[in-house]
TrEMBL record:
Belongs to the LysR transcriptional regulatory family. Signal peptide: none annotated. InterPro entries: LTTR (IPR050176), LysR_HTH_N (IPR000847), LysR_subst-bd (IPR005119), WH-like_DNA-bd_sf (IPR036388), WH_DNA-bd_sf (IPR036390). Residues 6-63 form the HTH lysR-type domain. It comes from the Bacteria. GO terms for molecular function: DNA binding; DNA-binding transcription factor activity. The keyword DNA-binding applies. This is DNA-binding transcriptional regulator, LysR family. Keywords: DNA-binding, Transcription, Transcription regulation. It comes from Neomesorhizobium albiziae. It holds the Pfam family HTH_1.
Length: 300
């Protein structure tokens, strides 16, 4: 039986189209025509020996074979890109300071650090996991080279657009009688200490919906929020990324809670030169965070 050698350019078009939700956009990003990308997808199905897409309304959805192919395609592309970067920067040395919100500390940071260190073992990294306001302050004071931050529209948060992330109501994993609409009681909130862009977004939604609320617990750390929600003290608002076992992301409309908006993530760079260690790390951060956030289900 002859071996199948998948074309990495084809796989890259496939993954990019799925992540962007449009193969026309994928063609534009990759500098190809839409017809060329369509031909690549036909080639992929021929090589795979199975359909990777099925009709879904006016668009396309992945088949079971397509889901499997997507997982392997991402891994193959990552390995290819990691090898290319390693060969170009085998002697790269230096120091990089990276900061990101707590939501991404456990879910994304290990993969980012692993990929980068394997490619650039001589580069030292200082990683800081902190609140958005602290990350912005450290970036402004030139204490961070790269800062992944929530974009509030200010000049301070303008940088590389990473992705839009859906906010979710987070409740305890086990049943608790926390709050029911119509009782006349304010909604109990478990939130970060102010200022907090996520907290402000949620309370603005509640105010527009005419739902009274009260803060029952505040914490300077994400671990404190998880503990309070798990105990049934109230609901919090996060992204659904990296949730511990004691809490869960709630479905749209569950418990009478209003729909939440999405927030934009930006990667803020401070004096990062092209080809520098920080520039190489930025590429990996963008890839890993986009992969995690695009894989997240949207709230119903």
């Amino acid at each position: 039986m002859s071996r199948i050698n998948f074309d990495l350019d084809v796989l890259r078009s496939f993954v990019t189209g799925v992540e962007l939700g449009s193969f026309a956009q994928a063609a534009d990003r990759l500098g190809r025509s839409t017809s060329a990308v369509s031909a690549q997808l036909r080639k992929l199905e021929e090589q795979a020996g199975a359909a990777v897409f099925r009709k879904s309304g006016r668009g396309l959805a992945l088949t079971e074979a397509g889901e499997t192919m997507l997982s392997y395609a991402r891994r193959l592309i990552d390995l290819n890109d990691e090898a290319a970067v390693a060969m170009r920067g085998v002697d790269l040395e230096g120091w990089v300071r990276l900061g990101m919100p707590e939501d991404f500390g456990e879910a994304v940071l290990p993969d980012i650090l692993g990929r980068f260190v394997r490619a650039h073992p001589k580069v030292r990294i200082e990683a800081r996991v902190a609140r958005n306001a602290e990350l912005l302050s450290q970036a402004a004071e030139n204490r961070l080279d790269l800062a992944l931050v929530w974009n509030d529209g200010s000049n301070a948060t303008r940088g590389d657009a990473v992705s839009d992330v859906q906010l979710r109501w987070i409740g305890p994993a086990t049943a608790h009688d926390i709050w029911q609409p119509g009782r006349g009681e304010p909604l109990p909130l478990v939130v970060f200490e102010a200022p907090c862009i996520v907290r402000s977004a949620a309370t603005a939604v509640l105010d527009r919906a005419g739902i009274p609320w009260r803060v029952v617990f505040t914490s300077p750390s994400l671990g404190g929020l998880w503990a309070a929600v798990s105990a049934g003290l109230g609901y919090t608002i996060r992204t659904g990324i990296g949730l511990p076992s004691g809490v869960r992301a709630m479905g749209g409309g569950e418990a009478g809670l209003p729909a939440l908006p999405s927030l934009s993530l930006s990667l803020h760079r401070t004096g990062v030169d092209k080809g520098s260690p920080a520039d190489r790390l930025a590429e990996i951060v963008l890839q890993e965070v986009r992969a995690v956030t695009t894989a997240m289900p949207l709230a119903a």
